[in-house]
């Protein structure tokens, strides 16, 4: 098929899909929500009192009197009793199926000491068969002073179970000696580009692997069966629905996409998903979309997730200046600049979206250089480059985000988590441009908020609380950590709704409560626009609706 012919067919299909998303067969509603305080995210009608749903779409949004005109004998009526209703929250960065698996794995996130860390792993090992892998965990060594865990802590407790448990950021993990042996890692194993094997004084691996060094372990770990992947997906969908999340942007691989596709084919998706696959597979994605299209309002694919650097907590984020607590270390790139340039250039040439992880100021600045070069070479188009995390930005680069229409895809919860310890890692000056929500908005940059779940909880209300108050989890910053970077509740909600939809090219079908859009909305027990900001994280989700169907009720 000629390229122009294919492009015409694709455009026609998109138009037809758009028409089907807004067309109703008659004027009676399947569901009416009345007596509400509806925050619509529609600038022409910011507030409404009621909404009507037909065939999963919003038939009308307005006052009780006009909406009730669409009622008939079969219409379900919900009386919101004055409660706040907002568009369904969109989590712009999740590892969705991995998060589902984490729900059933060993829980190490709040382990306060090395002994507690080890004991939890040992106790979990007693509940599973010999030979079964122990993964997940999400430990945080900063809780016990910053000392990295070692295989020796857990070997005696896990003699028959290989262990590979991740730090909460996913950029380093601890293996026990059994797992190291299975992966062939010993003192003679060479270092890998873009990764590190932590060793003791005589060169023996301690068990901690960073970034690309973790590939040794991924290569020997068995792939979970399809049934278990589907169960993890269902658990993930149920969990996020309880948090008011109706759509997610999935950062994962092809296997996870196939799990999502299978679930969609079976009609069991209850969360809308915009899926990305690895940047290195841009050619495969291009061919897949040519043959199959890029999906529909439930499951869409089109993003390519890549990495420039690692993470702050693992000291693998790439900075211009060295780490304050580790002089001489600047972190590192997990992919060479030339490789990233080639991948992004070809992805963009084929009209695929580049969704690239960059955390340190050097990584971010280098990525913007690449984006500028690619845009100049490939010419103008609506490409919506994204920088995932955008955590530590050099002063010179705020304007470059705006100039190049780069979306800052950020996770506010990280700010109140990292704020407990980040200053000792990068010093008092660099933290002034850390999680710079206000600075980016003032520069004219669009924010798309998310969680990075499994790394942090997929709880938008906590994310809004974090962006608005910046009060760290240890309660040591009551006025906010780097308080000049606070934003308003309205700005934070926008980043979780319409601008998050924009980040996946879907602002025309969701992200706001307007006629013809998908009927995804959430009912809250308190008005987050009126209560004290520090109370926002205590607000409860009463109900979550996706396509007019209730997927969660408290």
Structural write-up:
The structure is a single chain. This protein has 18 helices and 24 strands. The longest helix is centred in the first third of the chain and has 20 residues, at 3-22. It is globular and about 80 Å long.
In a few lines, what is going on in this structure?
With 554 residues, this protein is of the alpha/beta class.
Rg over CA atoms, rounded to whole Å, is: 24 Å
Beginning-to-end CA distance, first to last residue: 51 Å
Q: What about the largest sheet?
A: 8 strands, parallel
Spatial sequence of strands, sheet with the most strands: 8-15-16-17-18-19-20-21
- pLDDT < 50 stretches: 1-25
- Stated plainly, the CATH topology of one domain is called Diaminopimelate Epimerase, Chain A, domain 1
Shape: globular
Range of helix content: 25-40%
What value does the average pLDDT take? 93
| Architecture (CATH level 2) name of one domain | Roll
Our estimate of the beta-strand percent is: 15-25%
* Class inferred from helices and paired strands: alpha/beta
CATH top level class name of one domain: Alpha Beta
Tell how many strands the DSSP assignment holds: 24
Number of helices: 18
List keywords for this structure.
alpha/beta, Diaminopimelate Epimerase, Chain A, domain 1, 18 helices, 554 residues, 21% strand, disordered N terminus, eight-stranded parallel β-sheet, 24 strands, six-stranded mixed β-sheet, globular, single chain
List the helices and strands and how they pair.
Blueprint: H1 3-22, E1 31-34, E2 37-39, E3 47-48, E4 50-54, E5 57-62, H2 64-67, E6 76-79, E7 84-87, E8 89-94, H3 96-102, E9 106-107, H4 114-125, E10 134-139, E11 163-167, E12 172-175, H5 177-183, E13 195-199, E14 205-211, H6 215-218, H7 226-241, E15 245-251, H8 254-266, E16 272-278, H9 282-292, E17 299-307, H10 337-349, E18 353-358, H11 361-378, E19 386-389, H12 398-403, E20 407-410, H13 412-418, H14 422-430, H15 437-442, E21 447-449, H16 460-469, H17 489-495, H18 498-502, E22 521-524, E23 541-546, E24 549-553
Parallel strand pairs: 1-6, 2-7, 8-15, 9-10, 10-11, 15-16, 16-17, 17-18, 18-19, 19-20, 20-21
Antiparallel strand pairs: 1-4, 2-3, 4-5, 7-22, 11-12, 12-14, 13-14, 22-23, 23-24
Helix pairs in contact: 3-7, 7-8, 10-11, 13-16
